[in-house]
Fold:
Amino acid sequence: MYLRTLILVGVVGVMYSCCAPNPKIVSAEFVPVTPRTSGDSAFRNQLNVYYQEIADKMNVEIGTSAQQMETDRPEGLLNNFVAETMLKYGNAIKPTDVAISNIGGLRRDLPEGKITVGTIYELMPFYNKLVFLKFSADQMDDICQAIAKKGGDVVAGISMMITKDNKAVNIKIGGQPLKQGKIYRVITTDYLSEGMDGLEPLANYMDEMEPLDVVMCDMMIEEIKKMTEKNQVIKTTLKNNIYVEK
Amino acid sequence: MWKSKFFIFTIIVLTAISCSKQPRTLVILHTNDCHSRVEPTSNNLGGFEYRKYLIDSIRKVNANVLLLDAGDIVQGTPYFNVYGGQVEVEAYNEMGYDAITLGNHEFDNGVDGLAKMLKNAQFSVVCSNYDATNTVLANRLKKYLIIEKGGLKIGIIGLGIMPDKVILPDNFRGIIYSDPIETTNHYAHMLKSDKKCDLVIVLSHLGYTGEMGDSALVAQTQNVDLILGGHTHNVRGIFRIPNLNGDTVIVAQSTKSCEELTKTVVEY
Structure:
């Protein structure tokens, strides 16, 4: 009788262990999301509404570029076009010495020919707002050293040579050597004002930052529209402002 | 004699029934860094329509599907600039996501922007190491999740990246970040021991590489069965890494834009 009880207890134990979940990962793999039309027509229709609205917004033509522009280091046509446009925008508000953005924030080239709203959204998809920051001459020097360390960036208003050991020398702002006691105004993005993307010294600005409450992408679209209205050709040149020691 | 035969017969039948049953399966699907890819990419892969079809077709043959995302569902196409995340959240509702964790780009429109974006979300948002108690996200962010699927109790931990130099302080205002390793060990132990979860999954936006990445996390944690990651973009892999106890843990992550998803099959 005892034996039977013992067997029964044993069997119940085996049953329990068989029934209790004992999960095991048996496979893990990637599955590609391949072209298939969803059977869910309500879902597809809703997406189509969004597709159409975005297409209508993005396909609006805002100008024509006279040249293919790309980013490069130490300087590129696209670096210059973006930074020069920022500097011009800043100067229309108050005297601005320098414009700084980052190559990492420019996500595509600007092809020769038609420019649409979509092109600029793809060029700068991030929701970065423009800000004014103020710096002393020494702080400007620090910023230039950070730019030199990166081998150049998206910059207007600064000229300098990057030495073989990545130091900035012969620094000039607006064509003039750095002057002790002078306060320099820089237009950049809120993102870079936090010292992001290797530009730490941009976070050390004097006083308070002055937010411009405009997204960089929207500023660019408006500026290109204005150039087009004024029949200005959309192009730039390599200035050799930032050059590498031979 | 008759009694004895009957007893043996009963035991054989019981044992056979309990042990010969087919193992059940749970399918865990995971995406990461989809970055507002509403439409397919230039490779004609991904996008919400194709993704929903794929998920629906997997659901047709598997009763138990857990659908998760490791963050950065937004930013990268004009859909986010124009609609602020509404398109992504609606599509995630329709695809039937169970849970997501937060990527750094979820904060691109600030805490208020994120709260607005998640207002109509029908999925859970789990972030164990972001304390949002004093913000408008307080009721939205879960410290951990327990999801029951097909008789299996699954604990889910979410991990967000250290915000320094990645999220603008203004956009992260009021949220308190804490160490992902300590957080993971705390919640994983709780989920396994106290809450009796059969499986513990970490949904991570820490990135794969670096001191604070998933590969480093595994070696310093225990009680975690699977890590589904994101953030790195240029890492694609299903890695098998030993944890603190020397047990192998799978760490999966895909590249950005969601041209593919990971599928992990669990038998129980």
Summary: The mean pLDDT of chain A is 93.
